[in-house]
Amino acid sequence: MRKFYLMFLALFAMALTANAGTKVLYSQDFETAIDAAAAGWASPNVPGGLSIGSDEYGKFFQFSPGNTNDRSAHLLWGESLVKDAGVTAYTVKFDFCFYAFGNNHVTSEIALMSDETTCTNKPNGNFKNNSTNCLFDLSEASSNTASATDRTFIINGDEGSTANLTQGIWYTVTLVVDTEAKTVDYNVCSLTGDAVASGIYEFPEDCNPWATGIYYLAGRYWNVGQFDKISIEAEVEGDIANVPSASLTGVNNAQRVYTINFMEGETLHVSFNGSEETVSYDDCEGVYVWSNNPNYDPSNEGLITDACNGGTLNIWTTIGDATSEVVAIEVENTIIPVVTATVDVVDVLEGYAKTYKITADNSTIPLSPQLFFNAEFIGDDGTHIQKNDLTNGATIELPSKGTLTITTQAFGYAEVSTTVENNIAYKQSKVIDFAHMTAAEITAAGFSEDGNVTGKFATYGRLFGYDASTYNAEDDTYTGTFVYSEIPQFTKLASEWETTENNVIVGDLAFTAVCPVNVHIFQGVGINLEGMKGDDMSGSWISSLYMTVNGATENDIIKVSSMGNYGSTSLHPVVNSLDEYIASNNCPVTAVLKGTDQISLYRVSDLIGCITVYSPENTGTGINNVESVESSEDAPIYTISGVRANKNNLKSGFYVQKGRTFIVK
User: Which DSSP string corresponds to 608-635?
Assistant: First the structure.
């Protein structure tokens, strides 16, 4: 796990340790990165999958292409960075983690490129197979299974050299490239120092010896790859004073803590508000912790109430006659507010009843602290609902008209509140229920009977209800199911959607453009798209098609019920017969949209069961009012070590609330 990084940081001097005469050519730890693009990362097909992630140990780059086929991302620093340094050997080092392997393809890859074009000209494929300019490569072995969390990776295309990697574990790769000998001395180890693989790779004679960047291939689906601590360094003649790096590693009210890294042999200079100090490498092994709190105590994990200073922190290094550039850091001593919660409607019923989802993006808050929410609803009818210590993605159901207040909190930060006036009542105005259309209704809409479904919706057997008569009280399970596999199919061919005027599907629901594929209605299930264009499906593949509800306004709410992956996300009700299962609503609500929003339907594996439109019966604000609030008696409670506690279940011990310590006996 990544937590080991800080545990072993001082012991192994991970912060670019080297002898005097080592020059840092490139360094990126993402602590000051605004976004992934600004940090140099790109993806030809899924730029939205690039992000800067964080945990309690700092920031890192993350590529998460989602529910897509194999997709790639790359970082380019260019050939001249190393080549123009005038060296014959250099070291590339980086940390990586497969936070999640692909759950369908075993095709993930990490490569050190010496080629600046293949990553864009031939993206989404194995880099080593597409270019000879590959200085190091880790490619998944085809023998892996898509469900495994421990996987074998082939090193540099040699099936006799492998590395076993575990999902969720951080590893360090160290590559020493000798441009004259045409070799790469490689070492892969966990952040705890456990050896994974090592050896010497002789790269081809025609391979460019100058590293240009890192390539990452994410195998489908839901692959998540992470990178951190990327550096390039080389031995040079003479004294080199490298620029120190400083990362904000602690926020606690007005207190700020910075971790400053510098290299072996160098002396660190720290100047703040007219006071200067020097730190030898031997004093801290190159990892120096500095705070704006004159009374800073690293063992104090409670809320800080000390008077802390603000100002400009200047840091630089010296070695021999060499002096590095000065890094200036503006240190604030204000209490940082967290972000207000985003409150979205994720379900709606007739009347005032709604379900709201509470989320907040902590990536814009320094150190991205874990956020908690207190939710309070006061109804006009006297209803009172209070939920505390909710986490991101929590939902709250409101039964009536009233005011919902969400307070966002994090340890050591100022809390912020937002209010939602739940004062708009809705009524059901339109229902397009594909799942429960009769054969006559389907044919009246222009779809022709087409036998039974023969594809994976039928053969996978994922459309089923539990047989109520087979209940096992001992383990609360059902042993029998009713599987819906003989599914009547109705089809409207691509040629029948010739113009936008013909794009009405059913009632007021219409495609937004000419539909190029065959469209099916699976009776008892929903509407489904073919993936390839034309009546005979001989054309190119589509991705998704979009539809809108004619006449719906932005004040309306559309509730979409759908399922994906050939029915694996369908609901499985407890029923007494197959007919009862078919009559049930078996598509979960997957989207709640404004009336003017487009409704997306993915090809082949997904379908929509029902689209329901709700229209307002009255006018109301529904406006979010945002305000910072002072800590109250309802403030969060933490253990003496800074861990948030459940205030409704406090065990004996010491606790902290609003900076004050109290004891529970």
Answer: EEEEEEEEESS----PEEEEE----TT-
